[in-house]
Amino acid sequence: MRWAKPKTMDAEQVRCMLGDEGHVWIGWMDRLSPAVRERLRNASFNICPACLIMKVGRKHSDADYFRCIEAWEEEERNSIVEDK
Ligand SMILES: [Zn+2]
Predict the structure, then answer these.
(1) Where are the domains of the chain?
(2) Separation CA 76–CA 26 (nearest Å)
């Protein structure tokens, strides 16, 4: 997956395919279960909940979201290595 170039400085704080700022995606948090929200808080980088839901789909099990978060964390780690 390719991440969009952030549109603003604020948007750089979260990995978002659309490059949107926090106020755009924060409402999507409500659509995730408390366990998934907790997992996002503990992720190795900020993941946009809107992108997570769009990628996995709505009304999926927490395990599906966890798998997607882990895949993105792995991707992020790999991209950091490639940049250097
Ligand atoms: Zn997003």
Answers:
(1) 10-83
(2) 21
26 CA to middle of ligand 1, Å? 10
Helix axes 49-56, 34-41, angle to 10 degrees: 120
Report the SS3 class of residue 30.
helix
Q: Please tell me the pTM assigned to this model.
A: 0.73
Q: In sequence order, which residues have a C-beta less than 8 Å from that of residue 17 and are 6 or more positions away?
A: 1, 2, 3, 4, 48, 51, 54
User: 11: CA distance to ligand 1 center in Å?
Assistant: 9
pLDDT in tens, the chain (84 residues): 566 766 665 545 567 776 666 556 678 888 899 999 999 999 988 888 888 998 999 889 999 999 999 999 998 888 766 655
Q: What is the DSSP letter of 48?
A: -
Count of H-run helices and E-run strands, the chain: 4, 0
